[in-house]
């Protein structure tokens, strides 16, 4: 089986600073993967490159079956090809209701004139209800998103990503600022999501990563330092140097 | 005329050995007495020639006096004298030849000779040769100027003769130059003229081109066959491509080689004349609503012989084919025209170079104005992310400050020296007030800030209008800024623009110093790059914002004084510059002095270049420039000098 | 699940009802059709105000909903006016020219008519040839199409260039302002083909309807303006109330986020920008026949900024806010600058409102931005919510 996402020796530098240095990365179709690494290791830049926000100076990014060259696509085209991204800061549309937020995220035609002619229908309503149920926001459907708690916004955002039905989900620090209970719920959501698609979680919090119980990739100074189970990588002397030595 | 008098004495003393000849001038005058008494343009020539040919020392003074209507004649014997006022209403006679006093005379016994202006012109021409060798360099220059303005073939030899003795190197160079110019026009033989022509290769002077161009003047001529060798043909013209067929045919008509075409309105008049019972040649008038119907009616009339027949296209074509059209030089000598053409081509290369230099200077000067106008905007935009629509009004405030200062300090130099810092202070305070009262409440809402400052802008503009009225107020520059630095006939730049350039340079240096070498600059840069981090490090962003806003506004005030010096001060002064300032910031890139400099340089020179190609139309130049900028933004959305990396992201 | 437009946007019904009542009352009171209590000039002012309300709705759509602070929409308004003005001026001049040429011995040919029209219209800028852009000027339908096409195409091309290069925020505002400036400077030239700073005039005379009095024509245009405003309001309400509206508000609030959801943000912006440009152009095409004259000064950048001011004062992000803002400020402005407002003697100085209105407007606008960012419409919302709460 070929990988879903194949990143091959990409490099990018900003004003001489090499943020990503000859990095290669692969993930299969239904896999949960955690990316860890110290500040400035290039985690966010890596996600920026996959989602089209930043163009690498060199390297290849291939995705899906048949393979698409993501470097030739715009952000919105990449998203429509099946890559979903959750930002570090919860970003939901606070002025709009939870229902509107989810409806916008549903994987329907996204071109302007199709949207202009869009009519709400039963199936979409049912999908929104099911998603709301999954993220535990059924009661809050008609509330304005801005009124939700921090954790609820995170879930809403994950729900919106699920509504997009992406093949690859990139999640940036989902646990930041969450209570313990909220974290457990989030872990469940992500693991369930990984049953049908690839999920990449960038996380700082080792405890959270351990709970995800998945393969881990360690980034350092823009390249892959180690890869394997959490126990395997934490035993790696390089990783220990990097984490303890900083 | 004391100067002439001294001159006279000087001449007399210098030529003392020739004293014996003095009598000769009087006798020479006597021989021409009749013509001197009643001179006319036509008859005066030989007299002057004789006088000049005599080489007598008193001739120059005599001619001078004569031209200035200071020559008198004694009625009794017809002798000529100069006079001086003496006591008792009498005049003291001065001998023309020796300059000695020759007794008193009553005014009624004398006749003042007043030649008309035509004669005086001819005399002046004869005088030139004396003036060209006049001991006073001022007068030699005047004579040269007179020659340059109104050259004549006869001057050439005079001028040549006057070069050798010239001691002043500048005047000598000018004489030599004029001599070469005159040689081009009046030189006796081909060889010297060609040499003179070629000596001007690469000379950007307007006078050189003015002397060469007439040699190349052409006219279009018609020939029955290929013109002879002795006709100096510039080029052959093919009707339809080099010359309009209508014009070519008209030439044939004018030369009597073809029948004239009946023009449209003549045909219409002919139709009107031949209306009979509402019909023209059997066609009802009401049907003559198209040109082809009218043509048909006319042809019918022509067939009857009532009106002259039309010249058909075929006839015209045949006539054109039968003849040769050519541009012919007025100057018959082919060697001369070739030399002139080649030299002019050479000159145009030099002129092109100097035009480029001139354009670059113009662009530089405009760029420094834009830099001064925009740098304040760029600073506030860079540090605070705020677009200040009232920036133009701060420029206006600066200009009006300069105007008010001049009302109290009449000395322009002092008033400008006072106005510059005062304009800075006033605009600085206005900027701080705006920041404290409005902008800080709109932090992180750039679009609201833009609109609120627009509100301030219209209020300020109207207040200025209410105080100072709608008419333009003058801001006068000191006299040492009048005039221009002139390199040659192509390159010149006014001192005001140089002063503004220096001012812009000074502010560039000052800002670089403040931002890079001072504590304030360090804090400003910190806030620009990361406001949150800066404030956590103990920098008070509020204070920084206030100071940078004040600084930006203050520089706008200075720019106002500078702009006011060459533009009229009105309440709309600032708004005329605001969009260009925005463009400068956008094109240059935000948060960087060098970016603003690059933006100002690019917009300034671009505008000048477009104006150069389309000189009649500054409006179109600005239109094209803005379109260019919109396209430029496509390729460099973050400006010429863009910050890269994560900090530059959203 | 799907609710009707009126249920989603209750303001639509109220607005249409108020507009209808207002229009009918004014027609009844007008000189042209009714009691003659409202003068023809007042009807014209009201008709023009309705057009300004329509362009304000367009501005609200593009700025209030989609977050693009365009400082160029009055340029589209003016272009719409120019397009219809070309037909009005050409046809009217043609009528006059034919009448005057009819006196000659020979009936005029079409070339002669064209030449006379050319020198009649362009003599003032020293020309007599009819420029190529007037090719369709003799056809009402073609010019009506151009009313939509020319501003629409300009918006499409400009928007495509600007959005494609991801110019946003104040940058975009400045770029739109530059576009407006470029257009007005271009039109100021004598060889622009649109009579330079003379502009187009005599537009209040409708070709072929010279015997209809202005009092009647003014009521026709008033009605047409009201109809256009009503339709524009409904269209705008329809656009903003559905999923499309949600998406463009999402673009306004967080452009990057909605882009990563797979929405082609640039395409949406382009649709909104072009659609609103067309609405603005239609408003302009109705406005200038009532104003009678259009010249490049109308398109100057400041006009577009005023448009933003109206919408901001009225309250952006709500359609009725735009209408309220445009109507209030433009009517107040003509009231104050008309000289009818009594001056205030302060003893040492007399405040003459013709001179001080701009100052009042400018400072008032600053105050609104500072203290009532939601504008007058925001006050409405507060009242309505209070009602709902009690």
Structure commentary:
- The complex is a heterotrimer of chains A (246), B (650) and C (390).
- Chain A is an alpha/beta fold.
- Chain A has helices at 43-51, 75-81, 98-105, 112-116, 122-134, 150-164, 180-193, 206-212, 230-235, 237-245; strands at 5-14, 17-27, 32-36, 58-63, 68-69, 83-86, 168-172, 198-202, 215-220, 223-228.
- Chain A has a domain at 5-92 and 166-245: P-loop containing nucleotide triphosphate hydrolases (Rossmann fold, 3-Layer(aba) Sandwich).
- Chain A has ten helices and ten strands.
- In chain A, the strands form two sheets. Chain A has a six-stranded mixed sheet with strand order 6-7-8-3-9-10, with helices on both faces. Chain A has a four-stranded antiparallel sheet with strand order 2-1-4-5, covered by helices on one side.
- In chain A, a hairpin with a 4-residue loop joins strand 4 and strand 5 (68-69).
- By secondary structure, chain B is α+β, with helices and mostly antiparallel strands.
- Chain B has four domains: 2-132, no CATH class; 137-215, no CATH class; 218-329, no CATH class; 372-593, no CATH class.
- Chain B has helices at 2-14, 22-31, 33-37, 44-54, 59-67, 117-132, 137-149, 155-164, 169-186, 190-198, 206-212, 245-254, 264-273, 291-304, 313-321, 334-384, 391-408, 412-437, 446-468, 495-517, 519-529, 531-536, 541-566, 575-588, 593-613, 618-635; strands at 71-74, 80-85, 91-95, 101-105, 110-113, 218-223, 233-237, 275-276, 279-280, 283-284, 324-329, 484-486, 492-494.
- In chain B, the strands form four sheets. Chain B has a five-stranded antiparallel sheet with strand order 4-3-2-1-5. Chain B has a three-stranded antiparallel sheet with strand order 6-11-7, covered by helices on one side.
- In chain B, helix 9 (169-186) packs parallel to helix 11 and helix 16 (334-384) runs parallel beside helix 20.
- Mean pLDDT of chain B is 83; it is low at 12-22 and 644-650.
- With 390 residues, chain C is mostly helical.
- Chain C has one domain (5-389).
- In chain C, 71% of the residues lie in helices and 2% in strands.
- The two termini of chain C are 28 Å apart.
- The mean pLDDT of chain C is 88.
- Classes of the chains: A alpha/beta (246), B alpha+beta (650), C mainly alpha (390).
């Amino acid at each position: 089986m070929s990988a879903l996402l194949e990143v091959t020796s990409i490099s990018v530098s900003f004003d001489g600073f090499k943020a990503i240095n000859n990095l290669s990365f692969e993930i299969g179709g239904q896999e949960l993967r955690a990316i860890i690494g110290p500040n400035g290791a290039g985690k966010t830049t890596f996600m920026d490159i996959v989602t089209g926000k930043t163009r690498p100076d060199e390297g290849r990014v291939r995705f899906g079956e048949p393979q698409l060259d993501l470097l030739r696509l715009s952000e919105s085209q990449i998203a429509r090809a099946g890559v979903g991204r959750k930002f570090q800061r919860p970003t939901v549309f606070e002025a709009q209701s939870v229902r509107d937020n989810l409806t916008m995220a549903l994987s329907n035609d996204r071109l302007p004139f199709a949207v202009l002619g869009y009519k709400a229908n039963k199936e979409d309503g049912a999908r929104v209800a099911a998603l709301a149920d999954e993220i535990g926001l059924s009661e809050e459907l008609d509330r304005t998103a801005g009124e939700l708690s921090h954790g609820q916004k995170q879930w809403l955002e994950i729900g919106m990503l699920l509504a997009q039905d992406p093949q690859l989900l990139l999640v940036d620090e989902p646990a930041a600022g969450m209570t313990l209970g909220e974290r457990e719920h989030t872990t469940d959501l992500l693991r369930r999501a990984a049953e049908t698609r690839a999920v990449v979680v960038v996380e700082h919090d080792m405890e959270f990563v351990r709970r995800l119980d998945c393969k881990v990739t360690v980034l350092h100074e823009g390249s892959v330092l180690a890869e394997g189970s959490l126990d395997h990588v934490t035993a790696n002397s390089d990783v220990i140097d990097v984490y303890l030595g900083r | 005329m004391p100067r002439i008098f001294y001159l006279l004495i000087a001449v007399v003393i210098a030529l003392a050995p020739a004293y014996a000849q003095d009598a000769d001038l009087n006798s020479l005058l006597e021989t021409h007495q009749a013509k001197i008494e009643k001179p006319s343009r036509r008859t005066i020539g030989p007299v002057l020639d004789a006088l000049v040919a005599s080489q007598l020392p008193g001739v120059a003074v005599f001619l001078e006096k004569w031209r200035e209507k200071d020559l008198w004649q004694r009625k009794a014997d017809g002798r000529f004298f100069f006079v001086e006022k003496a006591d008792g209403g009498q005049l003291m006679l001065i001998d023309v030849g020796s300059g000695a006093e020759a007794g008193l005379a009553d005014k009624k016994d004398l006749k003042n000779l007043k030649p008309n202006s035509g004669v005086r012109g001819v005399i002046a021409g004869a005088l030139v040769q004396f003036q060209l060798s006049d001991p006073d360099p001022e007068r030699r220059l005047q004579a040269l100027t007179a020659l340059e303005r109104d050259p004549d073939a006869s001057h050439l030899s005079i001028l040549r003769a006057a070069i050798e003795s010239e001691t002043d190197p500048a005047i000598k160079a000018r004489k030599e130059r004029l001599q070469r110019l005159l040689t081009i026009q009046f030189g006796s033989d081909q060889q010297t003229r060609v040499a003179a022509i070629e000596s001007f290769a690469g000379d950007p002077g307007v006078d050189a081109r003015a002397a060469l161009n007439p040699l190349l003047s052409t006219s279009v001529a018609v020939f029955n066959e290929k013109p002879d060798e002795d006709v100096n043909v510039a080029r052959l013209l093919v009707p339809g491509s080099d010359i309009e067929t209508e014009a070519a045919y008209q030439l044939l008509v004018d030369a009597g080689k073809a029948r004239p075409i009946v023009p449209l309105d003549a045909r219409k008049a002919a139709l009107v004349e031949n209306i009979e019972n509402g019909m023209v040649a059997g066609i009802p008038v009401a049907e003559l609503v198209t040109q082809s119907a009218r043509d048909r009616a006319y042809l019918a009339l022509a067939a009857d012989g009532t009106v002259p027949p039309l010249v058909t296209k075929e006839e015209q074509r045949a006539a054109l084919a039968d003849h040769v059209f050519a541009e012919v030089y007025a100057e018959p000598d082919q060697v001369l025209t070739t030399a002139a053409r080649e030299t002019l081509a050479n000159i145009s290369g030099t002129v092109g170079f100097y035009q480029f230099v001139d354009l670059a200077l113009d662009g530089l000067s405009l760029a420094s104005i834009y830099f001064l106008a925009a740098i304040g905007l760029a600073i506030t935009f860079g540090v605070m992310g705020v677009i200040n629509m009232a920036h133009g009004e701060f420029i206006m405030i600066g200009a009006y400050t300069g105007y008010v200062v001049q009302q109290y300090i009449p000395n322009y130099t002092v008033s400008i020296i006072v106005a510059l810092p005062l304009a800075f202070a006033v605009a600085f305070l206005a900027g701080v007030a705006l920041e404290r009262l409005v902008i800080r409440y709109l932090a992180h809402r750039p679009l609201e800030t833009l609109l609120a400052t627009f509100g301030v802008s219209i209020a300020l503009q109207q207040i200025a209008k209410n105080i100072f009225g709608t008419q333009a107020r003058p801001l006068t520059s000191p006299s040492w800024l009048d005039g221009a630095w002139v390199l040659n006939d192509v390159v010149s730049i006014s001192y005001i623009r140089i002063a503004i350039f220096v001012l812009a340079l000074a502010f560039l240096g000052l800002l670089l110093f403040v931002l890079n070498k001072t504590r304030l600059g360090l804090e400003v840069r910190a806030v620009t790059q990361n406001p949150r981090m800066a404030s956590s490090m103990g920098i008070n962003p509020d204070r920084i914002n206030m100071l940078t806003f004040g600084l930006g506004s203050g520089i706008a005030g200075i720019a106002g004084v500078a702009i006011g010096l060459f533009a009229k001060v009105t309440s709309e002064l600032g708004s005329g510059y605001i969009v260009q300032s925005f463009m400068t910031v956008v094109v240059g890139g935000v948060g960087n002095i060098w970016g603003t400099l690059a933006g100002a340089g690019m917009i300034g020179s671009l505008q000048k270049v477009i104006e150069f190609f389309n000189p009649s139309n500054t409006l179109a130049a600005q239109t094209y420039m803005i379109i260019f900028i919109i396209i430029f933004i496509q390729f460099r959305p973050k400006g010429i000098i863009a910050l890269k990396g994560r900090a530059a992201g959203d | 699940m799907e609710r009707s437009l009126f249920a989603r946007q209750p303001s639509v019904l109220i607005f249409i009802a108020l507009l209808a009542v207002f229009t009918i009352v004014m027609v009844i009171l007008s000189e042209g059709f009714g009691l003659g209590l409202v003068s023809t000039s007042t009807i014209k002012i009201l008709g023009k105000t309705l057009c300004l309300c329509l362009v304000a709705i367009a501005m609200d759509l593009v700025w209030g909903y989609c977050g693009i602070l365009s400082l160029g929409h009055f340029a589209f308004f003016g272009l719409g006016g120019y397009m219809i003005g070309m037909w009005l001026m050409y046809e009217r001049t043609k009528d006059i020219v034919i009448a005057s040429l009819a006196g000659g011995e020979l009936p005029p040919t079409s070339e002669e008519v064209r030449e006379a029209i050319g020198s009649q219209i362009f003599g003032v800028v020293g020309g007599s040839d009819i420029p190529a852009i007037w090719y369709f000027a003799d056809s009402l339908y073609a010019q009506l199409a151009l009313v939509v096409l020319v501003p629409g195409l300009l918006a499409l091309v400009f928007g495509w260039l600007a959005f494609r290069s991801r110019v946003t925020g104040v940058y975009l505002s400045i770029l739109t302002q530059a576009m407006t400036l470029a257009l007005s400077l271009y039109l100021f030239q004598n060889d622009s083909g649109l009579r330079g700073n003379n502009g187009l005039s005599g537009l209040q005379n409708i070709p072929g309807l010279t015997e209809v009095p202005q009092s009647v024509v003014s009521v026709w245009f008033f009605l047409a303006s009201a109809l256009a405003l009503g339709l524009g309001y409904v269209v705008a309400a329809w656009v903003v109330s559905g999923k499309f509206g949600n998406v463009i508000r999402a673009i306004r609030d967080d452009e990057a986020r909605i882009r990563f959801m797979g929405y082609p943000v640039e395409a949406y912006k382009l649709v909104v920008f072009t659609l609103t440009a067309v609405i603005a152009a239609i408003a302009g095409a109705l406005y200038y026949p009532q104003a009678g004259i259009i010249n490049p000064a109308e398109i100057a950048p400041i006009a577009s900024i005023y448009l933003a001011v109206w919408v901001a004062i009225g309250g952006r992000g709500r359609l009725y806010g735009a209408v309220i803002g445009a109507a209030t400020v433009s009517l107040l402005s003509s009231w104050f600058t008309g000289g009818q407002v009594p001056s205030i003697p302060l003893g040492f100085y007399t405040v003459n409102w013709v001179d001080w209105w701009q100052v009042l407007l400018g400072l008032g606008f600053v105050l609104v931005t500072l203290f009532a960012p939601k504008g007058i419409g925001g006050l409405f919302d507060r009242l309505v919510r209070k009602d709902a709460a009690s």
